[in-house]
C-alpha cells in the first residue's frame, strides 16, 4: 500500500518469473501515483526475460529499472 507520505516506491522483481499485460498495467498505475507527487518510483532485480518484456513494451523508457536493490535505493538518495 502506498501512503501519501511515502517518498519513494521500489518494486523488487527478484522473484518475478512472469508478467502479463495486466501486470504491466499495474506497474504503470502504481508508478503514476508516486510520480505525480514527485516521489521516486523504480523496479529492480528483473530477470532477463522480464527485462525483455519491459524493453519490448517500451516500459523501460517510462520506469526506472535498476540491476540490484542496492543500486535502486542509492538512486533514491539525493
List the topology elements.
Layout: E1 8-12, H1 21-35, E2 40-44, H2 48-57, E3 64-66, H3 69-76
Parallel strand pairs: 1-2, 2-3
Largest sheet: 3 strands, parallel
Mean residue pLDDT: 89
**Contiguous uncertain segments of 5+ residues:** none
The CATH topology is given as Transcription Regulator spoIIAA
What is Rg?
12 Å
Q: Structural class, from secondary structure content?
A: alpha/beta
User: Judging by the overall fold, what is the CATH architecture?
Assistant: 2-Layer Sandwich
Spatial separation of the terminal alpha carbons: 24 Å
Beta-strand segment tally: 3
- Side by side, the strands of the main sheet go 1-2-3
CATH superfamily: STAS domain
Amino acid at each position: 500500500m502506498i501512503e501519501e507520505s511515502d517518498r519513494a516506491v521500489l518494486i523488487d522483481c527478484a522473484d518475478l518469473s512472469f508478467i502479463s499485460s495486466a501486470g504491466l498495467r499495474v506497474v504503470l498505475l502504481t508508478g503514476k501515483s508516486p510520480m505525480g507527487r514527485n516521489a521516486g518510483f523504480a523496479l529492480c532485480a528483473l530477470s532477463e526475460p522480464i527485462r525483455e518484456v519491459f524493453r519490448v513494451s517500451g516500459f523501460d523508457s517510462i520506469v526506472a529499472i535498476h540491476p540490484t536493490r542496492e543500486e535502486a535505493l542509492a538512486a533514491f538518495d539525493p
